[in-house]
Amino acid sequence: MKIGLFFGTFNPIHVGHMIIANYMAEFSDLDEVWFVITPLSPFKQKKSLLDNIHRLAIANIAVENYPKLKTSDIEFKLPQPNYTVNSLIHLEEKYPNHQFCLIMGEDNLKGFHKWKNYESILENYELYVYPRISNGETESDLLKHPKIHRVNAPIVQISSTFIRKGIKDKKDISTMLPADVWKYVDEMNFYK
């Protein structure tokens, strides 16, 4: 089975994440897409993160009705900060019959050369890159790499940061989250 791994803090998961993941599951050669919930990204501050268990619960609610979308808490069990290369090794050990690939936005590809052991990742895994509106050019050698596949997924300009700020500012952002996710976030008074 070919699994696309969509890494992120998903703080919270929103319709943009769902659109990209479902597009990858339905319109590429991936069999499933797993949201890998990250406890702490080496590039993010921890102070604004909901507890791991809540972000996982929100993601589980979001994928409930999508058989090709799953969640993974594998990074909760790994040393922090988490590095993708370590997570990939652990996933391969746990699921030896699966072929894992990375899903990332084109904006993340620009900084991919800063990732720990990025050469090893590129040597051993395919990358599925979806378009993002961002500043600057993506390194041309990376785009030409045979293991990098540009996928013409919809461009969705919604961010978790925007959603958190909207909730804090008492704006109605309910359409930007899956309905059951919005209900849970609202009932739990998250991000207020």
What is the makeup of the main sheet? 6 strands, parallel
Distance between the termini: 40 Å
Overall number of strands = 6
Question: Poorly predicted ranges (pLDDT <50, ≥5 residues)?
Answer: none
Average of the residue pLDDT scores = 91
In terms of structural class, how would the helical and strand content be classed? alpha/beta
Radius of gyration: 16 Å
CATH topology: Rossmann fold
Question: In DSSP terms, counting alpha (H) and pi (I) runs of 4 or more, how many helices?
Answer: 8
Architecture per CATH nomenclature, i.e. the level-2 architecture: 3-Layer(aba) Sandwich
Describe this structure in words.
This protein is an alpha/beta fold and 192 residues long. The protein is built from eight helices and six strands; from the N terminus they run βαβαβαβααβαβαα. Helix 1 (15-27) links the parallel strand 1 (2-8) and strand 2. It starts with a strand and ends in a 5-residue tail after the last helix. The model has no long low-confidence stretch (mean pLDDT 91).
Please write out the topology.
Layout: E1 2-8, H1 15-27, E2 32-37, H2 52-63, E3 69-72, H3 84-94, E4 99-105, H4 106-110, H5 118-124, E5 127-130, H6 140-144, E6 148-150, H7 160-168, H8 179-187
Parallel strand pairs: 1-2, 1-4, 2-3, 4-5, 5-6
Helix pairs in contact: 2-8
